[in-house]
């Protein structure tokens, strides 16, 4: 038996007036997920405990079977694992976004326009991060390039600080959300002077793209300690994702990280490459379990784009779910499949919420027939509810 998770990050949403009271998931054409929902178990699961903030870190830990209330030590240290950052137990690690701010006002009065700087490429971002390192690296604070707009800052012998998530405050004046710790606020202000007129950003502006013109710190945490996934489950696992956070969780859990060319974490990514990498890992490379993470629905939710969120969901259905199902069915290998978001990212608020998410649990050896489609509403109508999302993994592997 092989085991697969296909996770559409932020795929769940709320009914929208613009869609006639439907959600993007209800409006999307998802024939493959609909078939699986009609032949498997459809229900809701609570992936984010009420005591915790709704983030992809907390929620993906839960989907992987780790109780977040026992295993979570912060988002950024997980991302740091994926890029090989050496962390001491007393170090504090921060996510360091490169964001887009308005240009004319004094720094504190600027508005945050884009938490992802137009999904800047990693190649461009690394050049900007070189300028940041030259300005700010010391024996105490170090900067590391991650992926796209997502980077890492390590504060030696630091302290965990509660800092605002940039994607929670798009379109707002930043002053109320700036860090209270002087050194971090100072670096953010100075970074604007360094980055705004950098040749990379002047070129981006000339091309009509958002400038990546300021640092933004958040997501502080300390070195994580996760139990080994194979020891925990008895399964050899593989992670396929474009996002450092997910790759870091995999490193911390002792899973294989499979790099796929052309994956971006955005709407335009190598969906087929992810699907086929998972199939190869399961059928040729000795893995028992594959976790396919697709970031695009979440990013489109943060951008507030209804049409692009629908497009991301449809791409996941046709170019990931459809391919995985077709290939696994053709192989004759029995498999169990879990499909779900980690958390909702509603268009209404353009950030994460803690609402339960709809899931499909499908077993190729034990199929049933119903009239279900895959949606938030239909999942709720089944009455099936898992209040502890980390138990979904046990249900998948049973």
**SS field, number of helical segments:** 15
Radius of gyration: 21 Å
CATH topology title of the largest domain? Alkaline Phosphatase, subunit A
Task: Tell me the strand percentage band.
Answer: 15-25%
Order of helices and strands: EHHEHHHEEHEEHHEHEHEHEHHEEHEH
Quick one: biggest sheet? Answer: 8 strands, mixed
The computed structural class is: alpha/beta
What is the CATH class designation of the largest domain?
Alpha Beta
CATH superfamily of the largest domain: Alkaline Phosphatase, subunit A
What distance lies between the first and last C-alpha atoms, to the nearest angstrom? 11 Å
Number of domains: 2
- With strands numbered from the N-terminus, the spatial order across the biggest sheet is 9-8-10-1-11-12-2-13
Shape: globular
The number of E-state strands comes to: 13
Tell me, rounded to a whole number, the average pLDDT.
Answer: 95
Report the CATH architecture of the largest domain. Answer: 3-Layer(aba) Sandwich
């Amino acid at each position: 038996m092989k085991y697969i998770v296909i996770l559409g990050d932020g795929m769940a949403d709320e009914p929208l007036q613009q869609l006639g009271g439907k959600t993007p998931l209800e409006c999307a054409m998802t024939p493959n997920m609909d078939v699986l929902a009609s032949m498997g178990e459809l229900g809701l699961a609570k992936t984010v405990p009420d005591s915790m903030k709704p983030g992809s870190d907390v929620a993906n830990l839960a989907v992987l079977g780790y109780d977040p209330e026992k295993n979570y030590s912060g988002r950024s240290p997980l991302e740091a694992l994926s890029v090989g950052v050496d962390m001491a137990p007393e170090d504090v690690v921060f996510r360091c976004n490169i964001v887009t701010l308005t240009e004319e006002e004094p720094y504190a009065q600027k508005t945050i326009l884009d938490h992802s700087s137009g999904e800047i490429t990693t190649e461009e971002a690394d050049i900007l991060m070189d300028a940041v390192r030259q300005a700010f690296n010391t024996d105490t604070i170090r900067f590391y390039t991650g992926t796209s707009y997502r980077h890492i800052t390590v504060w030696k012998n630091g302290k965990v600080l509660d800092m605002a998530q940039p994607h929670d405050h798009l379109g707002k004046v930043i002053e109320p959300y700036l860090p209270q710790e002087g050194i971090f606020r100072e670096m953010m202000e100075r970074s604007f002077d360094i980055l705004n007129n950098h040749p990379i950003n002047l070129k981006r502006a000339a091309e009509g793209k958002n400038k990546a013109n300021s640092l933004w710190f958040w997501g502080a945490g300390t070195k994580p300690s996760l139990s080994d996934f194979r020891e925990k489950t008895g399964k050899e696992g593989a992670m396929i994702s474009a996002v450092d956070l997910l790759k870091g969780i995999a490193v911390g859990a002792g899973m294989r990280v499979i790099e796929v060319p052309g994956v971006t974490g955005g709407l335009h990514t190598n969906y087929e490459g992810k699907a086929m990498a998972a199939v190869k890992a399961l059928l040729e490379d000795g893995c028992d379990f594959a976790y396919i993470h697709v970031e695009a629905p979440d990013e489109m939710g943060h951008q507030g784009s209804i049409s692009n969120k629908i497009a991301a969901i449809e791409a996941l259905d046709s170019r990931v779910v459809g391919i995985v199902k077709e290939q696994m069915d053709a192989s004759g290998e029995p498999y169990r499949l879990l499909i779900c978001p980690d958390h909702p990212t509603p268009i209404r608020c353009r950030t994460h919420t803690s609402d339960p998410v709809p899931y499909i649990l499908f077993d190729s050896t034990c199929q049933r027939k119903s009239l279900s489609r895959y949606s938030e509403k239909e999942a709720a109508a089944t009455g099936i509810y898992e209040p502890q999302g980390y138990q979904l993994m046990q249900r998948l592997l049973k």
